[in-house]
């Protein structure tokens, strides 16, 4: 459900981020059963924070955990989230030209 809300509502995305939602979602994912909805919500939030924040929160190790042990849906969402981060990072690097 969180993934649906964060997909289309900028105010909700900002609220989730300001209340520490990214950290909470990442902690949740380190458990034995990563959930697709939590990964989907993270995928929707990554464009609203800097790469430095994602690195400091351990985003990539959590996504790798999901890729190794999550359900197929969670793995697909994690792969999509990683692709989104890489795309945003590439876009940031080309903006200065």
Radius of gyration: 13 Å
SS element count, helices: 7
Overall 3D shape: globular
Taking the alpha carbons of the first and last residues, their distance comes to 39 Å
Taking pLDDT < 50 over at least 5 consecutive residues as the criterion, the unreliable ranges are none
| Portion in helices | over 70%
Strand-and-helix sequence, N→C?
A: HHHHHHH
Mean pLDDT: 83
What does the oligomeric state look like here? single chain
**How many β-strand stretches?**
0
- The total tally of domains equals 1
How many strands, which pairing sense, and closed or not: the largest β-sheet?
none
Describe this structure in words.
- It comes from Prunus armeniaca.
- This is U-box domain-containing protein.
- With about 100 residues, the chain is mainly α.
- It has one domain (about 1-90).
- About 80% of the residues lie in helices and about 0% in strands.
- The protein has helices at about 1-10, 10-20, 20-30, 35-45, 50-55, 60-70, 70-95.
- Helix 1 (about 1-10) runs parallel beside helix 4.
- The longest helix is centred in the last third of the chain and has 24 residues, at about 70-95.
- The radius of gyration is 13 Å and the shape is globular.
- It starts with a helix and ends with a helix.
- The relative contact order is 0.15.
- The model has no long low-confidence stretch (mean pLDDT about 85).
């Amino acid at each position: 459900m969180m993934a649906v809300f964060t997909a289309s509502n900028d105010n909700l995305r900002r609220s989730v981020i300001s209340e520490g939602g990214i950290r909470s979602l990442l902690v949740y994912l380190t458990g034995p059963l990563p959930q697709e909805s939590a990964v989907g919500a993270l995928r929707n939030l990554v464009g609203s924070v800097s790469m430095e924040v994602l690195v400091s929160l351990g985003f990539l190790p959590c996504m790798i955990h999901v890729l190794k042990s999550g359900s197929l849906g969670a793995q697909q969402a994690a792969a999509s989230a990683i692709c989104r981060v890489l795309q945003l990072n590439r876009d940031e690097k080309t903006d200065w030209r």
